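Friendly challenge for the regulars: who can give me the structure tokens for this chain first? No prize, just bragging rights.
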Amino acid sequence: MPIRRDPSAPQMGPMWNWRITAISALVLFAVAVLGVSLGPIHLNFWKVIKTLFGFPHGLQGQERVLLLDLRLPRVLLAALVGAALSTSGAVYQTVFRNPLADPYLLGAASGAGLGATLAITSSGGNVYGLLPIFSFVGGVLAVLTTFFISGKFFAEPNSLLLSGIAVGSFGTAIQTYLQQRHSSALRPVYSWILGELTIANWQVVRWSSLYIVSAILILITVSKQLDGLLLSDEESFSLGINPNKLRIIAVAAATLATATAVAASGLIGFVGIVVPHLVRGITHRVTNRSLATMAFAGAAFLVLADLGARTLLSPAELPIGVITAFVGAPFFLFVLRKKRVGS
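First reply, four minutes later:
Bragging rights claimed.
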């Protein structure tokens, strides 16, 4: 007897509609132009376009410097971080078959944050080129510790999440201890923990793009196979997928992306939950073939959040983590309630 599907339920379609990805890329471009144009000092929209594409009659003087040396690298860094967190969140939700999973809940971001805090407190915050290394090592160790505590490498998802919360709390405790021991670094560490993009410059954009783009490309390459992890391991094997090997690749790439994002911008929460669920809700498809769309959507989301952080209390500036928490916390509760009602 054939199994009947609920037509209203999200589906894993045989093909992904790439028009959605193209639209999300256009939205990102529009949001990025908006982000570099608006601020305490508004720049002419059309002159910004001309300057970005090298056309004549663009911005000149201090306005050109403001655009190219300050706002553009900051917007690009926000886009990179947003793409990293959104795709990593989606992958973690797939790997552990839990819609509430994201890198922060599994301890990866807390471990990466601890590594970056060690770098800042031991060097006065002047080694941003080494922060990805410290963060990546911290993130990997946190994830491995989470797996170890849970009992086996790929344990039951809820056990992993609880282990991740414990590891994250322990990492936060060590961060607090380091802050108290190094009072001179307290202010930069505290600002970084709340999430900030004020350190954005072309050097930070270059090294963060290397790690983040590489990780996202790896995840997009295996995105079709990742859909098989939505099934049981036995069904995955029948499709020619080695689920354990695929999980290792996915977790490693997602950890690299998360660790680099944390190193570049601090702890910015909820992006990994909000964006994947929004994309799935709009498209009505539960498929990892939408990772490229989630990357563009996450980038646009964080660029808008950073714009709000820069303009809501202008000339003062809010930590970007405050903006994402304001949007993401209610969304998290909505997803949690929906999950409970559906179970």
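The domain at 18-33+62-342 is CATH 1.10.3470.10 (ABC transporter involved in vitamin B12 uptake, BtuC). Confidence is low (pLDDT under 50) at residues 1-14. Your move, everyone else.
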